[in-house]
């Protein structure tokens, strides 16, 4: 389901297996547990890279799990979906407050909550030969949780891009995603995407930034997002004055 490795100063969190990496309570709890481990081991000059095996980075919430656990009750399936939405919110908060740079290597499809998972990182690299970014709620007939909308609003600068992603449900490939400002760079294969993420991570950790300072600057950069996620920015001064 998930593994965590440390390569020098880089933490590599991998969603394992060939499935769609749909976010159910078990996967969400596992990712949060690994992020807690990353946080506890953080030192100046560390970074996190999140990758996924197979054709999907993540295909969003596990609707099949909600249906299978609902005993045939549509209303109970909706309640279980809302439960997953509630569980996923603190995972996003974990990433936004993590005391180090974060990079998502999107080597397959990233849809709905899977897209939000990627965009909760500081940098997003994407594979161009396979995979799309897709916010599917308008097609599925679901409104967006408040924190989804705020992340998109604060992370995506251009209003017309937000409109097309959220209100038209466009499926965006890597090169177009770079132009639209949804991702930072595109690569020809999964291996090159992960390699690009590792190269960036290695460049960032050389700066040996203090993690607490880095995390607080990130939180201050996204005030509306932090308000919705229940995060509070604080002043930290560790420089020699």
Automatic annotation (TrEMBL):
Gene Ontology MF terms: delta(3)-delta(2)-enoyl-CoA isomerase activity
Pathway(s) it belongs to: Lipid metabolism; fatty acid beta-oxidation
Transmembrane segments: 96-118
Protein name per its UniProtKB record: Delta(3)-Delta(2)-enoyl-CoA isomerase
CDD domains: crotonase-like (cd06558)
Catalysed reactions listed for this entry: a (3E)-enoyl-CoA = a 4-saturated (2E)-enoyl-CoA; a (3Z)-enoyl-CoA = a 4-saturated (2E)-enoyl-CoA
A family per Pfam: ECH_1
Gene3D superfamilies hit by this protein: 2-enoyl-CoA Hydratase, Chain A, domain 1
Gene encoding the protein: IBR10
Organism whose genome encodes this protein: Helianthus annuus (Common sunflower)
Listed EC numbers: 5.3.3.8
Keyword terms, alphabetized: Lipid metabolism, Membrane, Transmembrane, Transmembrane helix
Swiss-Prot/TrEMBL GO biological process terms: fatty acid beta-oxidation
Family the UniProt entry places it in: Belongs to the enoyl-CoA hydratase/isomerase family.
């Amino acid at each position: 389901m998930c593994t965590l490795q440390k390569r020098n100063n880089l933490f590599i969190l991998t969603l394992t297996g060939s499935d769609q990496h749909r976010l159910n309570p078990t996967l969400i709890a596992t990712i949060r547990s690994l992020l807690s481990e990353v946080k506890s081991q953080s030192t100046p000059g560390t970074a996190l890279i999140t990758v996924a095996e197979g054709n999907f980075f993540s295909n969003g919430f596990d609707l099949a799990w909600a249906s299978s656990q609902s005993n045939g009750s549509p209303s109970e399936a909706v309640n279980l979906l809302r439960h997953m939405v509630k569980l996923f919110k603190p995972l996003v908060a974990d990433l936004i407050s993590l005391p180090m740079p974060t990079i998502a290597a999107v080597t397959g499809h990233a849809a709905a909550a899977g897209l939000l998972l990627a965009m909760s990182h500081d940098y997003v690299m994407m594979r161009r030969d396979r995979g799309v970014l897709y916010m599917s709620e308008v097609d599925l007939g679901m409104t967006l949780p408040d924190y989804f909308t705020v992340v998109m609003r604060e992370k995506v600068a251009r209003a017309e891009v937000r409109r097309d992603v959220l209100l038209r449900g466009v499926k965006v490939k890597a090169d177009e995603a770079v132009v639209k400002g949804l991702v930072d760079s595109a690569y020809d294969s999964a291996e090159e995407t992960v390699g690009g993420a590792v190269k960036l991570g290695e460049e960032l950790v050389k700066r040996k930034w203090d993690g607490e300072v880095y995390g607080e600057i990130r939180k201050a950069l996204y005030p509306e997002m932090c308000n919705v996620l229940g995060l509070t920015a604080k002043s930290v001064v560790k420089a020699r004055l």
